[in-house]
Write a structure and sequence with these properties.
Number of strands: 16
Distance between the termini: 37 Å
Largest sheet: 6 strands, mixed
Number of helices: 18
Oligomer: single chain
Radius of gyration: 24 Å
CATH topology of the largest domain: Glycosyltransferase
CATH architecture of the largest domain: Alpha/alpha barrel
Structural class: alpha+beta
Shape: globular
Bound molecules: calcium ion, zinc ion
Number of domains: 2
Helix content: 25-40%
Length: 613
């Protein structure tokens, strides 16, 4: 991966006045797209709608002008679709499938302009419909929507698929998603590791294993940190939903929850990146990104890469390992005490190393051009390590360190600052407060600030025509994960919310999921294999080289990115609104790559949005 510039400051302003309301819709995905432009499609759909076959059992293609969560809506939750047609629709109906019976009719709300996308959309509220089943919306002049489900828990299948996607990313072993997803497989890959001279030493057995980070085959401790930490948190908070999930991996059927088995695959690699002195090397990758070949055909040697001079290891990687290994130390205890102890010991050793080396930054050595994950401030990572070590051990040293810098952790919680791979201060604060036994004043301050920020996020989403909390500066590389991490933030705050506020925060998190799963300007599900119109061409080497049309399933694409950071985005028309800076093309690594740290908040959301137990 290569998202080192994810938070570039922007000088271009897209105020509502700057975007003409009738801006022509850019072709969302170029010539190979499955998604025609909304304008063209609604016209085509309107023509089809006028044809006599448009009644029950219509064979017309779904219209991208009617935007729904293509996976579905929880029966007990509010339900809304968005409609983008001109002139505005006066009526919509919901039809049960397969018989097509009309079960609800309504009037869409007035048109609203969304400066982020340049769209004018109407909300169609069908919350009154709660009967489980399969449905579609129909709008005179626009056609019909993709099918969706209403069910008590419509996300259970996708929760399994998204969790299982990590198995597909396993490195150093054979992978096979069959028999339920035949063909998605590869023989063992990257079995030969080595040490780059920047790592400062050689060892007998260089690391292998872990998860391929993204569309490439590199493995990066920093990005593994937030990805693995988020997944462990999902298990810790939502064990009721994740604990019993059979995700179809080689370890299924053993005594350990599958999600923990899968996470351990990556934890073992992270632990193996720790040097004898406690420091942790930053990454293990080839020198350059390989071509679009399957994992086992990538013959480049995966090298442990260091900082190029003593102490060779980086502070952010070491602190991330400390945080994640500390979580592991408490969560694996009931299943494998020895592994839990080994994790805790590693976390403690990393902590000690950080005392001597609090701010060793990593930069790519010359001639290494894989993802850098450079981060000049490792203070937040160290705080996270302190909070997790304290939560797992209760020892005063870690608690005192955290409380002494609680102001930094508090400052990291905000209404426009969801966690990201380089900003984990909020995770530190939340873990300290979630433990339930911390310094009362500190815990109370964290809870108060988290609830305040969450209320503002939910209110902002409520005002957005697409019901998302995105701000102007959020349309960056990996914006879908920014959205998903807002969802995570809402769900964490929900743990402390008064009863009267809990449903509002839960529903705002649900709205983020609806956006990712199709209720967006492209009417496209951004999770591979989920929904009737999902992305087809992710920047993902296994998907691009296996000869199978559909990509590997359960992967979240990066999403719209206003910064023109790849050739496909650079070729989009000038003035394209930020929320439309996306293309379902393999070459668009800056909008259509997948990544383990983006899928993690997706899993967190799928596990944590409120559905009946
Ligand atoms: Ca298992
Ligand atoms: Ca940082
Ligand atoms: Zn591999």
């Amino acid at each position: 991966m290569s998202r080192s510039g994810a938070r570039v400051a922007l000088v271009l302003a897209f105020g509502s006045a700057a975007v003409p309301a009738m801006l022509p819709a850019p072709s969302p995905a170029g010539p190979r797209s499955a998604a025609p432009s909304p304008a063209a499609s609604s016209l085509a759909a309107a023509l089809r709608e006028a044809a006599p076959a448009a009644a029950a059992g219509s064979t017309a293609e779904p219209s991208p002008a009617i935007r729904v969560d293509q996976v579905g809506y929880p029966a007990g939750a509010p339900k809304a679709a968005l409609i983008a047609v001109e002139p505005p629709a006066g009526r919509f109906t919901v039809h049960r499938l397969p018989d097509g019976a009309e079960v609800l009719a309504g009037e869409p709300a007035p048109l609203r302009f969304d400066p982020d996308s340049g769209d004018r959309v109407q909300t169609a509220d069908f919350s009154a419909l709660a009967e489980p089943g399969r449905y579609e919306l129909r709008v005179p002049g626009a056609g019909r929507s993709t099918q969706f489900e209403i069910a008590a828990d419509p996300y259970r299948g996708l929760l399994r698929l998204a969790s299982r996607s990590y198995y597909g990313q396993r490195c150093g072993t054979a992978v096979d998603l069959g028999p339920d997803r035949p063909g998605y497989r590869h023989p063992p890959c990257h079995l030969e590791g080595g040490f780059h001279r920047s790592a400062g030493r050689r060892r007998e057995r260089p690391a292998t294993g872990g998860w391929h980070d993204a569309g490439d085959y590199g493995r990066y401790v920093v990005n593994s940190g937030i990805a693995t930490g988020t997944l462990l948190w999902a298990f810790e908070l939502y064990g009721g939903r994740l604990g019993g999930l059979d995700i179809g991996i080689p370890e299924s059927g053993d005594q350990t929850p599958d999600v923990l088995d899968e996470i351990r695959w990556n934890l073992e690699w992270m632990l193996s990146m720790q040097d004898d002195d406690g420091g942790v090397w930053h990454k293990q990758t080839s020198k350059r990104f390989p071509g679009f070949v399957p994992p086992h055909r990538d013959r480049s040697i995966s090298l442990v890469i260091g900082t190029g001079s003593a102490p060779w290891k980086s502070s952010c990687a070491t602190a991330d390992l400390a945080a994640v290994a500390a979580i592991s130390g408490r969560l694996y205890r009931p299943y494998d005490r020895a592994f839990a102890e080994r994790s805790l010991t590693a976390a403690r050793r990393a902590w000690v190393w950080l005392h001597e080396h609090p701010d060793v930054a990593f930069r790519n050595p010359r001639a290494v051009s894989t993802g850098e994950y450079g981060d000049s401030d490792c203070g937040d990572e160290r705080l996270w390590a302190a909070a997790e070590l304290w939560r797992s051990t209760g020892e005063a040293e870690y608690g005192a360190f955290f409380v002494g810098r609680a102001g930094e952790a508090l400052a990291a919680i905000g209404p426009a600052a969801p966690p990201s791979w380089s900003e984990v201060g909020a995770l530190a604060a939340w873990s300290y407060a979630l433990a339930g036994t911390g310094d009362p004043a500190t815990v109370s301050a964290i809870r108060g600030r988290s609830l305040e920020a969450a209320a503002e996020i939910a209110a902002r989403a409520g005002r957005h025509p697409y019901r998302i909390p995105m701000t102007e500066r959020d349309w960056v590389w990996g914006s879908n994960a920014v959205a998903a991490n807002y969802g995570l933030q809402l769900l964490v705050a929900r743990e402390w919310a008064a009863e009267a506020d809990r449903s509002r925060l839960g529903e705002a998190a649900l709205d983020v999921l609806h956006y990712l799963l199709g209720r967006n300007p492209f009417s496209l599900s951004w999770v591979t294999g989920a929904g009737a119109r999902s992305l087809l061409h992710p920047h993902h080497r296994p998907s691009g080289s296996d000869g199978i049309e559909a990509p590997w399933p359960g992967l979240l694409a990066g999403g719209p990115n206003r910064n023109r950071q790849d050739p496909v985005l650079r070729a989009l028309p000038p003035g394209t609104p930020p929320a439309r800076m996306y293309a379902d093309e393999e070459e668009s690594y800056a909008s259509n790559e997948v990544a383990i740290n983006w899928n993690a908040p997706l899993v967190f959301l799928l596990a944590g949005v409120p559905v009946p137990e």
